[in-house]
Request: fold
Amino acid sequence: MEIDPEIVARRARERADENWGFRTFLKAYSKLPERRVDALAEQFARQAEAQINCTTCAACCRDNYIPVNNQEIARLAKRLNLTPGEFASRYVQPETSEHDAGIDARPCPFLEDNLCSVYEDRPEVCQGYPYIGGNIASRTVGIIERAGTCPIIFDMLERLKDELGYNYYRRGRRRR
Ligand code: SF4
Ligand code: SF4
Reply:
């Protein structure tokens, strides 16, 4: 498994077309029931998760826009001895038509020595990342996007493409 986030990001860029093709394949051609695909995706992601130490990676803390709601702003502000207004003006981009209010600095300003300095009060989106489990067929956009950041998701996607016969299907199409 590749655990270097820079190599993962480069490979994901190189495979972008292939991965978007997998999205179509999954919806139109995969013969496996969705529940089986979900179970395989979760199994592969858990196996990848066991092979990486997130504290040595932290790619998601360097690479992501972090949406925050008012409750999370209040919690983080309290932790930092700021008022919610002070916290918001220092760290939060206001909501726009394109995205919710959130922390847009990359890396995240709370990443210190590769660790989250506000861990117990980190936003919900950080707590759930990289979102292992659930219905993969309805979440392929997010999964393909996250495969460019997170080695766990990249590895899961690669194994899933192989297991579901997508690589075989692509080779067959190229021969036609
Ligand atoms: S709040 Fe913590 S977990 Fe979330 S992106 Fe920042 S450093 Fe990472
Ligand atoms: S969740 Fe993924 S991107 Fe974030 S630290 Fe762990 S392996 Fe790296």
Observations:
- The chain has a mean pLDDT of 93.
- The CA atoms of residues 67 and 97 lie 14 Å apart.
- The chain is about 55% helix and 5% strand.
